[in-house]
Design brief:
two-stranded antiparallel sheet; 6 helices; globular; mainly alpha
């Protein structure tokens, strides 16, 4: 049992750490961090998302997304077109710089995904993602009921 726990947690931590490293290394020339990359990526494919939408898609809290969006707006990657309603509920739009960077991010992500899928068949990949989703949902349910 202990070995299963160690293997599970170590592998998940390694995957997460390596994803952050790749994001940070690949985007260092733009002075972007991992959270900025996630925001630009989601906005590139679904322009008009709100900060609330990005919290859900990036699985980040409101404060983290707010800081990331402030940085991206100050550095002219995006703009908030609607100034009338609450900023957090306003649609965000990429600038030309943001769209160009979003395309580079999407291309780099596609390249990494192509590189790592080499060891799996399509059926194995589908089963793997299905298994990850089940594990994620199960852990979320346990975390809501967990009293330690």
């Amino acid at each position: 049992m202990e070995e299963r726990f160690e293997t599970f947690t170590v592998l998940l931590n390694r995957i997460s750490r390596n994803i952050r490293r790749i994001k940070n290394r690949e985007m260092a020339e733009y002075n972007l961090r991992s959270i900025h990359i996630s925001c630009l990526y989601y906005l590139y494919f679904s322009e008009g998302l709100t900060a609330t939408d990005l919290c859900e898609r990036c699985e980040e809290d409101k404060a983290t997304i707010s800081r990331a969006l402030d940085y991206l707006e100050k550095n002219r990657y995006l703009t908030c077109e609607s100034k009338n309603s609450k900023r957090y509920k306003s649609p965000l739009v990429l600038t030309d710089k943001g769209r160009e960077t979003g395309k580079k991010i999407a291309d780099k992500i596609a390249g990494v995904l192509d590189e790592i899928r080499g060891g799996l068949t399509e059926e194995e990949r589908v089963a793997f993602y299905r298994s990850l989703a089940i594990i994620s949902d199960s852990l979320e349910a346990v975390s809501k009921n967990c009293v330690l």
